[in-house]
Amino acid sequence: MRIHVVFATVGRAALLARTVDRIAEQTRLPDGILVSATGPADVAGVERARMPARVMFGDKGLCRQRNAALRELSTETDVVVFLDDDFVVHNDYLAVIEETFADQSIVGATGDLLADGIHGEEIPFDAAALRLDGHTLPAFTPLRPRQALYGCNMAVRASAIDGLWFDEALPLYGWQEDIDFTHQLGKRGRLVSGDRLTGIHLGTRSARSPGKRLGYSQVANLVHLWRKGTMQPNLGQRLLVQNLASNALRSFYPEPHIDRRGRLLGNLIALRDLMTGRIDPRRVETM
Question: Where does the chain show beta strands of DSSP type E?
């Protein structure tokens, strides 16, 4: 089984170099590492990683960059593992991927995380690595079915994604592109997760979309996916209400690392566009 790891990255070269370097500690090494970036500044230092990484440059945008990687690897691999540049994997991650995809009914898998900094304080790389190095995987646990995969770490069977692409109408950071892509993938086989497949998502804030842009995407992307039919209605409604409520309430006392007022402004602009029939996720590219 050929397994390739893909990083789509922009603006976080130092972190990317460390994340790529750690892949050399995998008990099952990848057959290749592909970095999809926007220019040389995105990958400065990655050439010093202990494992060589192939680098390609293209247009900015998570979906565009991941699609470019899929085209590049179309005939080279059996399993594509998409990792965020701030996702630190357990050293048995790829070994468990190989074990998991031995079941031909499985088309996608994602890890059950030990910690996720996106929901609180950003996690330092060294702290994540230390915790993972001390974590022993359970001997065996059954896999659980999933309706979609978590984009910070998701593996997909190459033969199952024929004709399926990340939606480039979801620009820049993407936001919910993982739900859209893997919801469709799940119609072609089983999506699973398990606690033997694990890592830590640092939740690094640098290079993420500014508050107003993300706020607009929090509404516009959900509307786009509802209309497309790739967002479960209950999930979309829950996300919309949660985001609007959180941004409104916390705009009075915002967290130091979150631009709540910017997000709320973006939410309101998107709601106005929805009511006037002008809503479009691609508007964030000109904000």
Answer: 3-8, 32-37, 54-57, 79-83, 87-89, 106-111, 115-116, 144-145, 153-157, 190-194, 199-201
